[in-house]
Amino acid sequence: MILKKLRAILKHKNFKLNTRPYELNIVGLRSESTIPNRFDDEIHVFYKVSPIKWNYHVFKATTDPGTFWLRNPMQEQGTAILAQGQYVNAYGLGLHRGQYLALVQKKPVAVIRDYDRNATLDFYNGTKTNGMYGINIHRANKTGTTKTVDKNSAGCQVFENAELFTQFLALCMRHRQRYGNDFTYTLIDFRAVKRETYRRIAIGTGIVGLLALGYVLYSGSDKLKNIAEQISESFNQLFKTKTNS
Asked: How many whole angstroms separate alpha carbon 123 and alpha carbon 113?
């Protein structure tokens, strides 16, 4: 069900969906929270293993910088926050900071510069630019599960668990063997999806929004999930009423 909804969102946004065997779709889901220093986002990896079967993996991660770099940005304009979007063939297997294997940026991506220099993530007031910023996809600590982001991300997409990141790399290496060292990364900000969904519902064009909304709060608490399900069901009933009238 999650795969179906996520594919619907990708289709609605005219994003690329890989369908060849073992060709990875790597999708970051940014949660609604603006509280930094938490691994409260997810990276979803899915790929076909036969004409009708998909394999699906979910990894806890952060798509946001940690509080250290928010307070101490590397650049005067502020700390980079990767902007929502799809970055086709923008990544390849390489060394993160020359130290260990990861997916490293090799084509321009879009970032928003948080220039407030405080511990609050600011997604709306910064300047959006495109370029080569070293926004890599890597792990946090060498072993185990890392509790807080801290210095582990200055804008990179960072896995919480080192062993699960090793599993992710194994998938990437199989992809590289078949299709070369080109990887597409898609980042979806579910706060933005929620706003877009409400707008589409308001103007009566919400069929894809209905599919999307059921997953908007997936990463949140059980209470939030229940709220999301209730809202989704309400909108589904609304849509059925409209189509039958």
From this structure: 8
Q: How far apart are CA 100 and CA 45, in angstroms?
A: 21
Q: Tokens 């989704």 — which residue?
A: 232
Does residue 123 contact residue 189 with C-beta atoms inside 8 Å? yes
> Any residues with CB less than 8 A from the CB of 11 and at least 6 apart, and which?
17, 208
- Taking only the tens place, the pLDDT of each residue in 116-138 is 544 455 555 567 889 999 999 99
Annotated domain spans of the chain: 2-191, 192-244
With beta carbons less than 8 A apart as the criterion, state whether 7 and 17 touch: yes
Listed residue (104, 117, 86) closest to 187, CA to CA: 86
- Interval 1-53: pLDDT, tens: 789 889 998 998 999 999 999 999 999 999 887 777 889 999 999 999 999 99
Backbone CA torsion sign across 215, 216, 222, 228: negative
